[in-house]
Structures are given as C-alpha cells and as structure tokens.
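Quick one:
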Amino acid sequence: MALGRPLEGKTVVVTRPREQAASLVEPLEHLGAEVLLVPTIRIVPRALDDEIVRVIVNDLPDYRLIIFTSVNGVDVFLGYLTELGLPFASLDDAIVAAVGPTTASALEQRGVSCDVVADDFVAEGLLDTLQTRAVAPAGTRVLIPSARLARPVLPDALRARGAIVKVLPVYDTVPEERLESPAERIESADFITFTSASTAQQFVALMEAAGAGRPLAERLSGVALCSIGPATSDTLRELGLPVAVEASEHTAAGLVAAIAATACGFA
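Output:
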C-alpha cells in the first residue's frame, strides 16, 4: 500500500446515480481504489406543470420556511425558478433550511443564503435544530421540495408540531434496468457504497435478478457494505444485508473517509 493511498489494490463499487457519482469516484480513485460505477437509480426531474407553477408563482411568498433535503431538490427547484424567469431572490423572505452541508453548499453556490443546517446531516437532526431555534412554530407554512417517494419523517413531525406543510415532489428516482458490471465482478469487490435507501433497494433487486438461486447475503459475504448514514443502514438491514461501514459524517466525503479508515484498520 503506497503512502497516502490506503485503497491501493481495493475495488469499490459505487451505486450512486451517474450524475452524482464524481463526488465518490474521484476521491476513491485518488486514494488508490479501482472504482466500479454501477448506478442503480437515476434522477428524473418532474416536468414544470400547473401545480408547480401555482406553488412558485402564486404561493411562494406565503411560505415562511423552505426546506431542501437534497442537492437534487436544490437543482430542480432552482431550475424551475430560472425557467419561470424568477430570480433566486424570490426565496429571500423565507427562512431557507438544508439537511446537511452538501445541500447547504449547493444553495450557497447559487447565491441562495442557507439560514439553518441540520447539526447531524439527517432529517431528524434538522427537526431538532428547527425546534431549538424555534424556527417552525405552530401555524408556520412550510414548503419542502423533495423526491416523490421521500421519507415522510420531516413533514409528519412538522405537522405534528402544528406547521402547515406542503411537500412538493420535484423529481423521481427511477430504477436502472440492468447492472453495468457482471454480478460476479461486484461480488468480488472489497467495498460497495450506498448513499440512499433507493440505491440499496434497487441494488438488491438487480443483484437478485442476476443471481443463481443463492441468497444475496451469502454471495456478498466477503464484501464490506458501506452506508452514508443511519437511514440507508436501516434499509440495508431490512433487506437482510449487514452494514460493515457507516459514515459518521453523512456525506460523500464522510463515506470515503470511513472506507479509508476501515482499509487502514482504524475503524
């Protein structure tokens, strides 16, 4: 193993959508890994329809809190503003919150100030932060641009506290139809990374379809399954797969760091 290249000789599978994979692929390769890009889902923005136009053009000024839960949500929602000829300053009168620093950075790179960031990078952490700062008291109108099948934890908890929540689906996560590497090659890897529940679910579906009757957990017994955070880890376990590595910082960089630490024997 070369100094500074703890993943030399290791193979790491990345299941993230192709458009988002660079944040994992590039640092993993820099650390010496051979990376197999095997996207299991892709992101499809929702077409600009009457509901979205109504929310943005007519209702946006009424929302006091706008919560972005992913970079995808930021990209698509701000794309709608651009398509409608509206400035990003249209968000200035609301409190803008983000689940995690990566999403906050995506906003700020586009000139949108992020007022609240979750302390521990997950929806539950954002809820705690909002409560501590008394940002969403009862009666607050909240807009959450999100994936169509996003976890309901955040909106449900806010509604339970008396907020008036509008969840606006702005994109779909669509399953890939096939594996881009042979299942046998994936099974011989050292690490497989998962960055969301949906990447894990579709990975299992594709691998089971490509299997030869053997249980998937058995086929992957020699591979370390690596999760970006608790929600993804829970999904893997529900699917019958053990989690060997979970990032303590729930970002792509945190996941890379956790894999490198494991390879060095520090985790």
